[in-house]
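A.,

Following up on our hallway conversation. Structure tokens first:
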């Protein structure tokens, strides 16, 4: 499946920052990196994970070579092969200097490839430098104006990836889910006897897990790799967590299971939070949901044993959705799916939902879209006053991480607590609504500044 992934190739002369950009595209999303056998000096490949999807990235040596040098000619050969294999080509230039004759020569060659070419203006380290890139005449064989980035600092890379994805969509080669490249780690979490093992057996189509009415028939996490339509999922069945008093009576065996369950939650990507919809939701569910949320996992609320609910009407599902959200309000953003692991009802819908939640964990909002967002949000709801004589002004907002999406809000103030915490909840809800960030936690950190450019 990985061979059929949409592919981009980084090309250009030496010392323009291709490898730095390659590393930026890969390492910021914990990508898998591997050298192509026999060509470690010439070409590297890896996967870029963006918005929960994957593309293949090829880094090449410089196209400017010394003719007659066997090694350099082989490097150029590998670069041309990468161009042939690529769906979209990134032509990297150095914006700190005017285009050199080699740049113009490469531009003409790339134009002949008849493939989409994005010119990447690297080393634009400051806003002023990025503005100059757009204003300058480049005249690179009619190729588009460079997209200004700083591979070193990461600025502009989000806009570059958006442009790459737009071109892939036009080609009819959209990026593939991350699960086509590496398994999504899915923890199946819930208190004892809610049907976790029955659910896994249904997914697997075999009786691998002990499924009985007796609590704690699953003593420790069990990993199983499942492939569905070219996508991979590592499901981990865990022991349920019971009240502390009951755990103490078991001589420590169940406590060990609880400890391992906590480790599974820490290492997972997405949690299937399984509950018995026929039973009241109480303290145990809140404790489990809190553990999952604290580890920044994506969450899917799986309401099991739906087949046992009698006299269902079109309003029944909405009634139970409100009940779950009201019982565990701090994960009200988690999608709810009503299933019967026993009768297989809606179980097959879980895979697409897992992919959607995983994609949202890696969501990245472009700088322009985020600026539009916070400016509109401030107009709709002015910042609320916390501990201070007056509410602060918002100076800016930027995304600083993924898994989960993490943002930095810059306010004009000397202390962070001048802004009321409720305003962060307002922004979080607006982000979910505007960018459809269902199933993932969102983190917003406050940064203070006494004036623009003077941050603490």
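Then the amino acids I'd put at each of the 456 positions:
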């Amino acid at each position: 499946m990985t061979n059929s992934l949409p592919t981009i190739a980084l090309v250009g002369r030496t010392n323009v920052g291709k490898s730095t950009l390659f590393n930026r595209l890969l390492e910021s999303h914990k990508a898998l990196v591997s050298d192509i056998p026999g060509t470690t000096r010439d070409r590297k490949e890896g996967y870029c994970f963006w918005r929960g999807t994957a593309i293949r990235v090829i880094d090449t040596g410089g196209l400017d070579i010394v003719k007659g040098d066997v090694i350099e000619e082989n490097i150029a050969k590998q670069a041309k092969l990468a161009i042939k294999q690529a769906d979209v080509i990134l032509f990297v230039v150095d914006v700190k200097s005017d285009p050199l004759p080699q740049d113009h020569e490469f531009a003409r060659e790339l134009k002949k490839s008849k493939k989409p070419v994005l010119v990447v203006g690297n080393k634009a380290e400051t806003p002023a430098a990025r503005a100059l890139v757009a204003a300058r005449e480049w005249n690179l064989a009619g190729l588009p104006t460079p997209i200004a980035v700083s591979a070193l600092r990461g600025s502009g890379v989000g806009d570059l990836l958006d442009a790459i994805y737009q071109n892939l969509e036009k080609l009819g080669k959209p990026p593939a889910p991350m699960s086509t490249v590496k398994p999504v780690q899915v923890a199946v979490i819930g208190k004892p006897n809610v049907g976790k093992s029955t659910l896994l057996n249904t997914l697997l189509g075999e009786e691998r897990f002990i499924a009985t009415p007796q609590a704690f028939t699953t003593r420790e996490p069990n990993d199983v790799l499942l492939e569905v339509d070219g996508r991979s999922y590592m499901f981990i069945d865990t022991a349920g967590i019971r009240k502390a008093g009951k755990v103490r009576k078991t001589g420590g065996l169940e406590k060990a299971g609880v400890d391992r369950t906590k480790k599974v939650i820490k290492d997972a990507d997405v949690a299937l939070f399984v509950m018995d919809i026929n039973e009241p939701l109480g303290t145990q569910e809140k404790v489990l949901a809190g553990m999952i949320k604290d580890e920044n996992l994506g969450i899917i609320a799986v309401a099991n044993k739906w087949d046992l609910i009698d006299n269902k009407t079109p309003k029944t599902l909405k009634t139970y959705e409100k009940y779950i959200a009201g019982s565990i309000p701090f994960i009200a953003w988690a999608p709810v799916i009503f299933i019967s692991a026993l009768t297989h009802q809606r179980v097959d819908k879980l895979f697409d939902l897992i992919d959607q939640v995983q994609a949202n964990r890696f969501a990245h909002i472009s700088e322009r879209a985020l600026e539009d967002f916070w400016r509109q949000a401030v107009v709709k709801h002015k910042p609320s006053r916390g501990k201070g004589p007056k509410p602060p002004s918002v100076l800016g907002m930027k995304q600083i991480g993924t898994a989960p999406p993490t943002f930095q809000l810059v306010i004009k103030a000397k202390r962070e607590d001048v802004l009321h915490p409720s305003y962060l909840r307002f922004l979080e809800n607006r982000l979910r609504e505007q960018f459809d960030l269902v199933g993932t936690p969102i983190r917003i950190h406050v940064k203070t500044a006494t004036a623009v450019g003077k941050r603490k």
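The chain has three domains: 2-178, 183-360, 367-455. Curious whether your intuition agrees with the design.

B.
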